[in-house]
Amino acid sequence: MTDIIRQADPVLPPLALVGFGDIARRIVRQARAQTPDRAILSLSRQLPDSGFDGILGHRLDLDDPGLTLPVDLHGTCLIHLAPPAANGDDDPRTRRLISAIEAQGRYPARVIYISTTGVYGDCKGAWVDETHPLNPANPRSRRRMSAESQWRQSCSRWSVPLVILRVPGIFACERLNLTRVLRQMPVVCPDEAAFSNRIHAEDLAEVCLRLSEADAPVGIFNIADDQPSSMTDYVWQLADHFGVPRSPCRPKAEVMAGASPMLREFLGESKRVRNDKLKTMLGWQPRWPTLASALRDCAQDLQTPT
Asked: What does the DSSP assignment read for 245-296?
């Protein structure tokens, strides 16, 4: 087993990123801009590309029943970004990762798990904070609840500080869902549309990085923008920004009948997510508190697909 580079600053433990997708890349870029010498490693099926020189990349397959850790995680801040398995109500991927850590017998200094606000289920448009009962209404959210429970039990057993971030839909200029806009796919009419929040990918990466500091607060936090709105409002704001006609609205039952399973989850659950706890305890304000503020940073030229 290879030891990772140790960090001299006790407030900034080395970062260990489990899963190396878009958010992990943003975390790395921000970390490099702030503290270029901070030790960072990734554990993922996908190794960092050439644009991430200096990252210690290790292959890790969370679907491997005999999973072992290729690196010592002792003293790191482990940020678990990899999604749960694709099926079932349980999350065996998290269970394998935790078992591999226990087999190693050396524990991270801190764990941050990226969960979902979907664990609250359908709240009929009510405002939801971290004390709201969990009532996940679909297998994807139940898998996240399973992972949360596994991390809470394990970190308690190890006496390791744990942060759970409950995240709504993630967006950025590079990851806007424009299909419905460009193809004029019907949306739910406003009087039936469900409430939801979003979070900009850069805001999420920033919060992950700030919570990775040894003296940062711990616990369960909702992270979201400051303006709940509906998927219909989201689609129409995109249409207005890019100068294309707004999609027609239809009754909810009609739109749901033609929606993908993932979209039905979003359309069928209505909640307005409070972010007060994170703001107060971390002293954080979203850089992009509303969709409109984020769209101002996005180019307006757009090619309609054929």
From this structure: PPPPEE-HHHHHHTS-HHHHHHHH---EE--HHHHHHH----SS-SHHHHHT
Read off the pLDDT band of 234 (50, 70, 90): very high
Taking Cα atoms as reference points, which of 150, 157, 117 lies closest to residue 271?
A: 117
pLDDT tens digits along 286-303: 999 999 999 999 988 765
Q: Give the tens place of pLDDT for each residue, 9-21.
A: 678 999 999 999 9
Q: What angle do CA 206, 211, 212 make, to 5 degrees?
A: 100
Encode pLDDT of 183-225 as tens digits. Answer: 999 999 999 999 999 999 999 999 999 999 999 999 999 999 9
| Domains located in the chain, CATH noted | 15-172+200-224+274-287 (3.40.50.720)
Neighbours of 95 (CB within 10 A): 17
Token pair 């904070």 in the structure block, residue: 129
C-beta of residue 128 within 8 angstroms of C-beta of residue 273: yes
In a 13 Å sphere around the CA of 227, the CA atoms on its Cβ side amount to: 13
Q: Which residues pair with 44 in a beta bridge?
A: 59
